[in-house]
From TrEMBL:
The keyword RNA-binding does not apply. GO terms for molecular function: rRNA binding. GO terms for cellular component: nucleolus. The lineage of its organism: Eukaryota, Fungi, Dikarya, Basidiomycota, Agaricomycotina. One of its GO terms (biological process) is ribosomal large subunit assembly. The keyword Nucleus applies. This is Ribosome production factor 2 homolog. Residues 324-333 have a biased composition (Acidic residues). Residues 1-22, 306-347 are annotated as: Disordered. Its main location: nucleus.
């Protein structure tokens, strides 16, 4: 059990608040850990992935006796010390050669895991093409229906999106889109090549998920984007292979605990400052202007003037005719005026 740190001053309090859950999350930090025996292939692949993840990547150069599926205490300690939520552990054994384990953390605890095997790879240095700038957010492309139907590939898609995703942006500039990462699958077997609800339920059974060798391989390709003149306002887009090129096969996995998953998907309450900035769910009739001020629009129902409460005056009393009002006014005109007090008769 990790100890709870109580802030002693304002500086440490701000540091702890920066690690609290946010409505708009920061870019996730990934830690690359080498096992007791990694191998040249896995070491090179981890370097290539770290180059795509920079600057939000931390590399542990020393070998560590880490077995994620058996004990995650070391990973939880590193996650707390480095404020990291993603791990990639490289391990090569005789039973599972050239393996990598993707691990997601929540609240400094292991959420879920997915192990893959590196079948083939091509380095960035083998592609004599321009490379993307480190830190730029890529465009992810998933080309298979299994990423939306099969639970194993749904988990892998979610992990890869968290791994390659950077800072949350409001708009996309074509000039800032430098590279594209395409994730596709090998030809789907006949047992999985269906989008009907019956076949989806059959694929979710433990027997269908137990044999990972029948699942298609995952192909990851990275391309640089080149914008050319097309004679119109929209440019012509060309993709050039940038590398790396990876062929992965799914192995073991560990699903997230339902209660922990529910907590991880829960959105924090918005503060007043965040609401004024226009973050979170947009409320009806509320908007933020260019100066950052929160403005609201109020709708008032139609008023009934017949029931309007006014000052009680004799002239506004109901039931008096116009004729009576005119006679009363004439009598008041011909009536003698009253003498003022304090004045003599001779005056």
């Amino acid at each position: 059990m990790l100890r709870t740190i109580k802030p002693k001053n304002a500086r440490s309090k701000r540091a702890l608040q920066a690690r609290e859950p946010k409505e708009v999350e920061d870019s996730r930090t990934a830690i690359f850990v080498k096992g007791t025996h990694t191998g040249e292939k896995v070491t090179a692949v981890m370097k290539e992935l770290m180059a795509l993840k920079r600057p939000n990547a931390i590399s542990f150069s020393k070998k560590n006796p880490v077995r994620p599926f058996e004990d995650v205490s070391s990973l939880e300690f590193w996650a707390q010390k480095n404020d990291a939520s993603l791990f990639i552990v490289g391990q090569s054994t005789k039973k599972r050669p050239d393996g990598m384990v993707f691990i997601r953390m929540y609240d400094n605890r292991a959420l879920d895991m997915c192990e893959v095997g590196v079948d083939n790879w091509v380095s960035m240095n083998d592609f004599k093409t321009p490379k993307s700038t480190p830190g730029h957010k890529p465009l992810l492309h998933f080309a298979s229906e299994l990423f939306d139907t099969h639970p194993r590939f749904i988990q892998l898609k979610s992990m890869l999106m968290d791994f390659f995703n950077g800072e949350v942006i409001d708009s996309i500039c074509l000039a800032g889109l430098e590279h594209v990462i395409s994730i596709s699958l090998a030809p789907t077997p006949k047992s999985l090549n269906s989008t009907t609800a019956t076949d989806t339920l059959n694929a979710s059974t433990p027997d269908a998920l137990a044999d990972a060798s029948q699942l298609p391989k995952v192909h990851i390709r990275a391309y640089t984007v080149r914008l050319l003149a097309s004679g119109t306002r929209t440019p012509r887009v060309e993709l050039r292979p940038m590398g790396p090129s990876l062929d992965l096969s799914l192995r073991r996995n560990k699903e997230a605990d339902p209660e922990m998953w529910k907590q991880a998907m829960k959105r924090p309450k918005l503060r007043k400052v965040d609401v004024e900035k226009g973050l979170g769910k947009r409320k009806k009739n509320l908007e933020v202007d260019e100066m950052g001020d929160l403005r609201g629009r109020i709708h008032v129902a139609k008023q009934d003037l017949d029931r309007l409460q006014t000052r009680k005056m004799k002239g506004l009393k109901a039931g008096r005719d116009v004729g009576e009002e005119s006679d009363a006014s004439e009598d008041e005109e011909h009536a003698p005026r009253k003498r003022r007090r304090g004045m003599s008769a001779s005056a």
